[in-house]
Hints:
Number of strands of chain A: 6
Radius of gyration of chain B: 26 Å
Order of helices and strands of chain A: EEHHHHHEEEEH
Oligomer: heterodimer
CATH architecture of the largest domain in chain B: Orthogonal Bundle
Number of helices of chain A: 6
Structural class of chain B: mainly alpha
Number of helices of chain B: 7
Distance between the termini of chain A: 29 Å
CATH class of the largest domain in chain B: Mainly Alpha
Amino acid sequence: xxxxxxxxxxxxxxxxxxxxxxxxxxxxxxxxxxxxxxxxxxxxxxxxxxxxxxxxxxxxxxxxxxxxxxxxxxxxxxxxxxxxxxxxxxxxxxxxxxxxxxxxxxxxxxxxxxxxxxxxxxxxxxxxxxxxxxxxxxxxxxxxxxxxxxxxxxxxxxxxxxxxxxxxxxxxxxxxxxxxxxxxx
Amino acid sequence: xxxxxxxxxxxxxxxxxxxxxxxxxxxxxxxxxxxxxxxxxxxxxxxxxxxxxxxxxxxxxxxxxxxxxxxxxxxxxxxxxxxxxxxxxxxxxxxxxxxxxxxxxxxxxxxxxxxxxxxxxxxxxxxxxxxxxxxxxxxxxxxxxxxxxxxxxxx
Lengths: 185, 155
């Protein structure tokens, strides 16, 4: 398991990257890059929505065709890319407010505060796309996965639950490296 | 001691010097958004057409006489297709992928075919001539010497 800085920073300042992504063993790139590639790939998206057509046809989204859903994902992926670019611009000016605003706790009302699992999404009112990860001490964030959320709850979707569970693997690895998470409030 | 380091320093030690390519890819997608979206629409249309015809991408690459990798790139919307390739795909699948909208000239199908046949190899040896009967009531606003419903090879 490796950790890749998401923003371009000089080697001497790499510890101030603030946003990282996991690269799992066997993967060609880190999770953020992998997800953005998938979310811009019509073949992947068409297959995904064909396999999850029942969720797409639910009252929650109806009416939305597979083609419409594909272009919606591509639009949201572009939103996320734009948001991340804005976060980087602000970080270069020493402002971390947009970073914190973008990555919010997954469970708003949860008593479980440790580890702090976050989600990030596009500006859409009901977005499909989610990035998941961990908020660490010292204001560092790690993206551990993400997915297309078609159901109202995360538990209803096997692929989303799997992505959230990946944070546990990363958490265990980081604890062995004496890297800890945002303390309980 | 590792414990004295900040979280950022500890992560930096685990980064192994790798850099993410997401920003470069995002910038490229943004700069090329227009044709990438059109290309993705064509890719999806092709995949839908193949599914309807019960054809695999391999069948399609064989039919087109191109590599499977090329077909995969077309389906992914990564190929900046020429009109010639689009026309070839349309003929292979029997579908219309691209339509120029708002264009004045809309010939009836038989005339289009005749024109298409005559213009093959167009490069000075062929020209439009004004012989034969023409439905003057519907020449789509074109001058009669350019539209007469019949194209013939020049002598």
